[in-house]
Every structure is written in C-alpha cells, then in structure tokens.
Write a structure and sequence with these properties.
mainly alpha; about 0% strand
C-alpha cells in the first residue's frame, strides 16, 4: 500500500516537472514572439520614415520642376 502511494507520488511529481518544463518552453516561445513583433514594429517604423523622406524628395522635385517651367516660360 505504502509502496503504491510512493509510486503514485513519484509519478505525480514527474508529471508536475514535465508541466513546469512545458510552461517554461511556452514562456520562451512567447518571449521570442514578442521580440519578433518588436522587430517587425521597428521595421514598419523605419519604412514609414523612408516613405516620408521619399514623399519629401518627390515634393522637392515637383517644386524644382515648377521653378524650371517658370524660368523657361519667362
């Protein structure tokens, strides 16, 4: 009887340890996903900055073209 109880306790302890290991792995996976999301957000922000710069360049080119046309007309 006591031997059976000891075996049961050992099995339960093993199960609990396995669950703890699984939880640790899941936490690690979640942290990795969080890091990936942060990187993606950073990439998106960088792309937004690049787009704004390109828009500014295009606007400046448009202004230059208008000035050139104005010079050619006069």
């Amino acid at each position: 009887m006591i031997k059976n109880l000891e075996d049961l306790i050992k099995k339960r302890v093993k199960v609990i340890k396995n669950l703890e290991d699984l939880i640790k792995k899941r936490v690690k996976v979640i942290k990795n996903l969080e890091n990936l999301i942060k990187k993606r957000v950073k990439v998106i922000k960088n792309l937004e900055v690049l787009i704004k710069k390109r828009e500014k360049v295009i606007k400046n080119l448009g202004d230059l073209i208008k000035k050139r046309v104005k010079v050619i007309k006069t």
